[in-house]
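so ive been stuck on this for like two days lol. basically i have the seq below and the ligand is fe (ii) ion, smiles is in there too. i just want the complex predicted, nothing fancy, no docking runs or whatever. if the output looks off dont worry ill sanity check it later, just need somthing to start from for the group meeting slides
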Amino acid sequence: MASTDTLTPQDWTEVVSPPAELLAAVSALVPAGDGPLTTAQLVQLSADVAAREDLWRPLVVADTERRRYRLLYEDDRVDTWLIMWMPGQGTGYHDHAISAVGLVGVDGAVVEKQMRLPHGSSDVEVREGVTREGPAGYIHSVAHVEGSPAITIHSYSPPLMEVAQYRVDEHGVLRRETEHGRRELIDNTIAEIAPDIV
Ligand SMILES: [Fe+2]
């Protein structure tokens, strides 16, 4: 495992450059067909990739400074990511624009929340083998609960080219701000304003 001292900031070329052996192996797991994958197919792909631990385990790092992730596979229909969560690391509420998502817990645990307005939120602990899935427009937050690191594997279709974070202006008005899909999600505006629903 690489030293966390040498890995901040992330090497972006490395982050989005899966080893060739990994690309080939995951390619064989992608269901045949044209067009986007269904959420069920995305969950299955994430679980199938998780089962090939020999391929992704060497990429795992535990970084206390920032959430770490690695691209495991991409084509024009789908991309698959390895995400590693340490204590205090989370995404804040966000959506994945036009991409559907299917994810699986691998090591440790994260908590996934969805807003249930006007009060509260759902609260699902994602541990090994637990899956979550949602179509385009799915809004959630994910944060570390347990593990050093907690590990999850996520697949998106179409590939995750845009995400949106939710911010609140000085008048308390909620706004949606888009970002490139490969930008780290660190916004916690809603957590600061309404901690009981995050
Ligand atoms: Fe997400």
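Residues 94, 96, 101, 140 surround fe (ii) ion (CB under 6 Å). Residues 12-197 form a domain with the Jelly Rolls fold (CATH 2.60.120.10).
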